[in-house]
Amino acid sequence: MKKIMLILLMMVTVLPLSAQRSDRGSSLVEPDYKDVNYAGDDIEAHRLDIYKPKNVEGKSKVVIVIYGSAWFSNNAKVMAFNSIGMPLLNAGFSVVCINHRSSSDACFPAQIHDVKGAIRFIRANADRYGLDTTFIGITGYSSGGHLSSLAGVTGDIHWASIGDVRVDLDGNIGGNLDIRSDVDAVVDWFGPVDMSRMQDCSKVKDAKSPEAALIGGNPADMPEMVNLISPIYYVNSNCPRFLVIHGDADNVVPYCQSEYFAARLESYGRLEEFVTVPNGQHGPITFNETTFKKMTDFFKKEYESIETVSAEEIMDELKSCGVFYLATVDGNQPRVRPFGALAVYEGRLYLQTGKVKNVFKQLSVNGKFELCAMKPSGTEWIRVSGRLVNDDRLAAKEHMLNVNPSLKSMYKADDDNTAVLYVADGEATFSSFSTKPRTVKF
Asked: What is the helix (H) or strand (E) element at residue 321, kind and residue range?
């Protein structure tokens, strides 16, 4: 039965999408990196392709693309690129198309675990693949719109529960658990987002529906899980901004799904625009030059709104404070201590410590950190967060000691104790009692 459903969904969804791309005269573009496994296993569902723009020098911002298949497919990343990836590539984005496990491979939350594992992988390997992860957008259509939206609204929500039903929304796919899995902007193409109102815009579908396969049971018997798989349930003021696109003639995912979602997003100030495509179907007509431009313009606007600064500026601000306080995680216990040694090397902000110290041992297990410092005025302060990555290169250690010569009485670059760590995925917030906080990335 599930195979029959998959064939029908492909007829409804996949074939029109392929035809839509073919009608526009585009052809398949070979990825720069093909079939990269983001989970450290040999599962086809855990592969991704990376397409790099030819019109951008150096690193480029990232958009992750997820295919639609009613969660029945575990290998349709090429279809995702052929459907909506090319406009993003032409707009100068690095496009990452990912596979994920199907509902026949594993029930929810396996699919969102895969998505967040891929996001962490991209951040962890940004330098290797030449990606600028100061901005990661995500988009998808149909069930891919669902997973993209769910990743967007649960970026800072790791567990969720209703009654006795509890769901892990992060998982541990691919490891890199000290790395963020949130995204900076979302474009939802006609995704099912409120599973409690998929039938006639008012109730759940039956036990033969794709969402029943996703949760492993009859939606009518599992109201808690119906809500827990629905992105609309998680919308909050900390979500990234959304662009929602839906055709009003969609006969697969009801148009009202996006009406509900857009209204909820707007109530929290997280909606950029709700685009209705007159006579737009589940792909055909809805995918067009105008909506593609809406998507690329939105992502550009969102990354341009993110202020970035140099590591030197952050170091200067911290040094103006004198001592700063570094917080790490020791199991389930936070630990804080004063720090002072800083350096910038190869454009990165570095801290120094000893390998025998508990702080180094804690960071080796979980690289996430926060630090805070108050300026001498007592009315301004800075908070910095990210993850600290150990750099064992002799040159990096020598640079740290040369910039901070007082350390040379305790450390040597070639001893077995000196450790220098650089900040990855850095974010700093400048605050005061009289002005609005300013948040930057570096």
From this structure: helix 311-321
CATH of 2-304, one of 3.60.20.30, 3.40.50.150, 3.30.428.10, 3.40.50.1820: 3.40.50.1820
DSSP state of 240: P
pLDDT digits (tens, 9 = 90+) for 217-248: 999 999 999 999 999 999 999 999 999 999 99
Compute the mean pLDDT over every residue in the chain, rounded to the nearest whole number.
Answer: 92
CATH of 311-441, one of 3.90.550.10, 2.30.110.10, 3.30.930.10, 3.40.640.10: 2.30.110.10
| pTM exceeds 0.90 | no
Spell out the residues 6+ positions from residue 385 whose beta carbon is closer than 8 angstroms to its own: 368, 369, 370, 371, 426, 427, 428
CA–CA separation, 396 and 388 (whole Å): 14
Q: Are 198 and 209 in contact (CB under 8 A)?
A: yes
Backbone angles phi, psi at 424, to 5 degrees: -115, 150
- In angstroms, the CA 42 to CA 13 distance is 28
Instruction: Supply 114's token pair.
Output: 């895969």
pLDDT digits (tens, 9 = 90+) for 306-331: 888 999 999 999 999 989 999 999 99
Mark 244-271 as b/e (b = at least 16 C-beta within 10 Å): bbbbeebebbbbbbbbbbbebbbeeebb
Task: Cite the DSSP H helix spans in 366-393.
Answer: none
